[in-house]
Amino acid sequence: MTSLQSVAFSGAPAPSPDPTSPVYRDAYSRINGVVVVGEGLADRHFRLLARAIPEDGAELLRLGAMEGRHARDFIGCGANLGVRPDAALAKQLFAPLHALFQECDRSRDLAGCLVIQCLIVECFAVAAYRAYLPVADAYAQPITAAVLADEAEHLNYGEQWLQGRFAEVAEAVAAICRSALPVTLQILQAVAEDMRTIGMDPSDLVGAFCELFEQSLVTIGFSGAEARRLVFRSVAAVSLG
Ligand code: PL3
Ligand code: FE2
Ligand code: FE2
């Protein structure tokens, strides 16, 4: 679409939000909290995975260490704007997903653990950071781009592991999708308004997440129709207000 067409179809472009304004910084503290707590949890999940899959222990500890660095880098993005992450809210939002991970870990459901961390959380991160890039401030932009490259590696680890054992794990993968996708989308729902405030479109993000996640399910061995059904059932109930 040319710029003329976009004006004709959607009116004047929205003014870009001012990252120094109080309203932006207030919204950013909650978004940044979700990102920092999500990265910290990813670090813990990879360390638990390293214990559960000792043959890949060193690799999984390396991925976990990357997550720890991501958390510190995003704390820096907040600090650059004079914002502290709202970690209390974010911990509350991530609690159901983390509890599901712990349940899978305790019951030795490795496929469940890998779907939660490497497929769901990482697709969520890739979709979110891609959507944030065009509206990121000049300090956060290169940091987000570098983190994005790492997240692809995390997604890839889980895809390879699950793909290699697809017949044995297909049922467990479908089951954890049904319980973990709705609680993940509720996190997004809780910060949808804050995302709009910093210039992001939460519906676009849900669309991008679904596409990436569906693609991951196909990569590990589901048919396109099965993957669509699994995602659609879990997403249909979530409204972004
Ligand atoms: C896995 O490596 C990390 C998981 C973190 C998940 C983050 C999801 C963020 C949702 C909405 C915010 C996107 C904007 C990013 C701004 C720093
Ligand atoms: Fe990360
Ligand atoms: Fe990651």
What does this structure look like?
By secondary structure, the protein is mainly alpha-helical. It has a single domain (22-235), classed as Up-down Bundle (Ferritin), CATH 1.20.1260. Helices cover 80% and strands 0% of the residues. The chain is built from ten helices and no strands. The protein has helices at 3-10, 22-52, 57-80, 87-106, 110-132, 140-163, 166-190, 192-197, 202-220, 224-235. Helix 5 (110-132) runs antiparallel to helix 6, helix 5 packs across helix 7 (166-190) and helix 6 runs parallel beside helix 9.
Concise summary:
The chain is mainly α and 241 residues long. It is 80% helix and 0% strand.
List keywords for this structure.
241 residues, 80% helix, 0% strand, binds hexadecan-1-ol, binds fe (ii) ion
CATH superfamily: Ferritin, core subunit, four-helix bundle
**What are the low-pLDDT stretches, counting only 5+ consecutive residues below 50?**
1-10
CATH architecture title = Up-down Bundle
Q: What's the structural domain tally?
A: 1
Mean pLDDT: 93
User: How many beta-strand runs?
Assistant: 0
* Name of the CATH first level: Mainly Alpha
Q: Radius of gyration, Cα only, in angstroms?
A: 18 Å
Q: How helical, in percent, are the residues? A: over 70%
Shape: globular
CATH topology: Ferritin
Report the sheet with the most strands, covering strand number, pairing sense and barrel closure.
Answer: none
Question: How far is the first residue's CA from the last residue's CA?
Answer: 28 Å
